[in-house]
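Hi Prof. W.,

I finally got the CSD domain-containing protein prediction working! I wasn't sure whether to trim anything, so I left the full sequence exactly as given:
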Amino acid sequence: MTAILIPQLPATASPASTGTAARRWQRGEVAWFDEAKGFGFITPADGGAPIFVQYSAVDTPGYRRLVAGQPVAFTTVGTRHGPEAASVRPLPIPDRTVTRPAPTAGTHDEGPTP
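And this is what came out:
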């Protein structure tokens, strides 16, 4: 498994040093994302309220999209409508190993009978 490093601002970061409100990286999961409309919501890992995200906040080269269930790291900014994701970085989806049960007598998985 590869470790993912999430950039962290110093605890003393001030609005003047960051250009906007002080930001803190969080982890979460994409609840849903409508590619046609270019927005969706992220569910924070800490259990907070869902965070609105626009396609322009997705920090990836090329086509910017998110997939429901995808883990992400993100920062938020305050808007007049509430918190909004400002920088969203998709994280690798953990490997999921699928194991098939052992074949039993009389199943099609046994192969041809001699």
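The helical segments are 15-18. Does that look reasonable to you?

Thanks,
D.
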